Amino acid sequence: MTGNIENIERFEALSNCGGLDCSARSDWELVKLMCDGVGEAFTEIVARYETKLIAYSRRYVGSLDLAKDICQEVFLKLIDKPPTTLQNDNLGPWLFRVSHNLAIDIIRRRKFELTGETLPEMTCGHRSPLSSLAHENDTEMLRSLIAKLPDDFRQVVELRIYGEMAFKDIAETLEIPQGTALWRMHEAINQLRSLWRRYES
User: Fold this and answer.
1) Which one in 63, 109, 143, 145 has a CA-CA gap of 20 to 30 Å to 198?
2) pLDDT in tens, 61-84
3) CA-wise closest residue to 45 among 18, 4, 15
4) Are residue 3 and residue 100 in the same domain, yes or no?
5) What stretch of H or E contains 4?
């Protein structure tokens, strides 16, 4: 608990330092400046990644509030134990990997806590197709189709769409070869096309 309080205090302190334009700095430069106590560097990192991290986490946990909590925890971890190296000076893969792990932990805890009575409430994906079509527009339907993909394919699609990540960064985040990431995206698109044709018919 004491460690968390100290991290939050550091979070607030870093967010309120003054005087340096960091907008043109690379992610790696920002991390080094942040470690030196430059608050604008941390603020710039948050500005670059906060919205994307929240959108990505929300696809996993289904709750905006939980996604915001995950995002804050990611930034606290960045302050507490920043990465010592970054591939291509890009912090995105590290942030998304931490976000992914935190979201998975929440999902696992949910599954562990669920009882037989509460389980149906969590399985909204089991609605009939007619019910889904009656209550969701095409964009929402596409999101539901993405959720039906196998986990390996879905992760790549979500990082690409919601995280706006390049495939090399997706590969680093998921710890797979870049060619594997590209292949999974290709297969995911094929499956989505098939699912979409069924939806349109």
Assistant:
1) 63
2) 888 999 999 999 999 999 989 999
3) 15
4) yes
5) helix 2-14
